[in-house]
Write a structure and sequence with these properties.
Layout (H helix, E strand, L loop, with lengths): L1 H11 L12 E7 L5 E7 L3 E4 L2 E3 L2 E5 L2 E3 L4 H6 L3 H4 E3 L2 E2 L4 E4 L2 E4 L2 H24 L3 H4 L2 E5 L2 E6 L2 E4 L6 E4 L4 E4 L14 H16 L12 H23 L4 H5 L1 H7 L10 H4 L4 H19 L1 H22 L6 H11 L2 H14 L11
Parallel strand pairs: 1-10, 5-11, 6-12, 11-15
Antiparallel strand pairs: 1-2, 3-4, 5-8, 6-7, 9-10, 12-13, 14-15
Helix pairs in contact: 4-6, 6-7, 7-11, 7-12, 11-12, 11-14, 12-13, 13-14
């Protein structure tokens, strides 16, 4: 029986597969938002094609090459794709079998592409409902699957090792998802939590930087403080969107140990307990917000944060060459809350930002 089934699958895979009807459904590895990850049939709302994987809000591309011969920071800050990519690749065509109207991907790359789009769509639709996200203003997104970084040495082109799993590129507002990690329990590309995290970097760029890649310029210390805010909020809103704080830990244990709130350090000791990285300080902010949300609700605290973002933009432009600090943004969040909720926020913020408790605007 197993041989006959295998033969039937191989026979069905010959030639061009039949195009799926809309709404497109596919069998992929996906989070159910409660128990974790299982292989299940999902239905897309905005996907219009699987060859290439493209819909109303995004396209997944493969085969892209990023040239790093020039200064990397200048490349990343550029809003000119030709200055970033030596090859922008192509729309990624899923290789699949259509069974009962459901797309069954035949390889890891195809399943990754469909999972990437599905998680992007889930995140986009959440933000559309939660914050009236508008595609015309936010923009169509290009998501690169396995982009390659290459540098030229003489007449030889060398592939550069990638140390990140996923990234948002501010200048052109692209998303990158790199090769799978051997340590990942759930592949990075199929992680709802990772996608929701990277998506908020795009939201931060849209709402705070207003799509200006030079916005992030400032003193090195201040840039780290802004990055801590960006990372902490991306983790917090990833939990809000996915409904599970365990999502990042489902992918890599190291992420679970350092990013799932509450972390075992505070502002006063994070450099020794975790390291001086802005990610560690960002986890303090995420822990403070999450603790307040356990009382007030994630969406309520999230709304206070969003209401504070215009003030963050003004504060950064005023102080990026001066004395910018995370606690000043914390004060903006507290100020955005109702009088009753300020007490809850203050209790959490003074606990986690213990070194700055005396300068937080709490009575």
């Amino acid at each position: 029986m197993k041989i006959l089934i295998l033969f039937a699958l191989l026979t069905a895979s010959c030639g061009e597969p039949e195009s799926p009807d809309e709404p497109i459904r596919a069998r992929i590895l996906a989070s159910d938002g409660q128990e974790g990850y299982t292989f299940r049939d999902v239905e897309f709302q905005t996907l219009r094609s699987v060859s290439p994987v493209k819909g109303d809000i995004a396209i997944v591309r493969g085969g892209a090459i990023l040239s790093v011969d020039n200064d990397v920071e200048e490349i990343i800050a550029s809003n000119d794709p030709d200055a970033i990519y030596s090859d922008r690749g192509r729309g990624l065509d899923a290789d699949y079998i259509l069974d009962g109207g459901v797309v069954h991907p035949k390889d890891f790359t195809s399943m990754s592409a469909l999972a990437i789009y599905y998680n992007f769509e889930r995140t986009y639709l959440y933000w559309q409902n939660y914050n009236n996200l508008n595609l015309e203003d936010f923009g169509f997104t290009t998501i690169y699957n396995n982009p390659t970084l290459k540098a030229t040495s003489g007449s030889t082109s060398l592939e550069v090792e990638v140390k990140v799993n996923a990234a948002f590129l501010a200048g052109v507002r692209d998303l990158w998802f790199f090769k799978k990690s051997k340590l990942a329990k759930v592949p990075i590309k199929m992680s709802f939590g990772v996608m929701a995290h990277e998506f908020f970097h795009s939201m931060f760029d849209y709402l705070v930087a207003e799509k200006d890649p030079t916005f992030y310029d400032g003193l090195s210390y201040n840039q780290d403080q802004l990055s801590a805010i960006n990372e902490g909020l991306s983790d917090f809103f990833s939990i809000l969107v996915t409904g599970r704080k365990e999502e990042l830990g489902e992918t890599l244990e190291s992420l679970g140990e350092t990013r799932i709130p509450p972390v075992p350090w505070f502002q006063s000791n994070y450099p020794t307990a975790c390291g001086s990285s802005f990610y560690c300080l960002g986890s303090v902010l995420n822990s403070a917000l999450y603790e307040a949300a356990e009382t007030l609700g994630m969406e309520v605290v999230g709304r206070y944060v969003l209401d504070a973002l215009p003030g963050l933009r003004d504060l950064w432009l005023l102080e990026r060459e001066g004395s910018f600090a995370v606690y000043k943004f914390v004060n903006l969040i507290i100020a955005a809350a109702s009088a009753e909720d300020q007490a809850v926020l203050c209790a959490s913020m003074t606990k986690w930002f213990d070194s700055n408790a005396g300068v937080l605007t709490c009575s």
